[in-house]
Amino acid sequence: MTQVKAEDLHKLFSDMREGKIKTRTGTPYKSTGDYVKVLKTFWHWYQKTMKKKGKILEDITEDLDARGEKPKFVYFTKEDCERIIDKASHDLKPILVLAFDSGARVTELVNVRVSDFSNDFKELMIREETSKTFGRRIKLMLCSEQIKEYVMKLGIKPDDYLCKKNPPMINKELRNLGEKTLTPEQIEFKNLTLYDFRHSSACFWLLRYKSESALKYRFGWKKSDMIHYYTEFLGMKDTINEEDMYADITKTELEKEISSLKNGVKNQDERIRKMENQNEKLTAMNMILYDAFVKGVAGNENEAQSELRNVAKKMITAGRFVYSTRKKANPSAA
Question: What is the pLDDT of residue 268?
Answer without folding.
Answer: 79
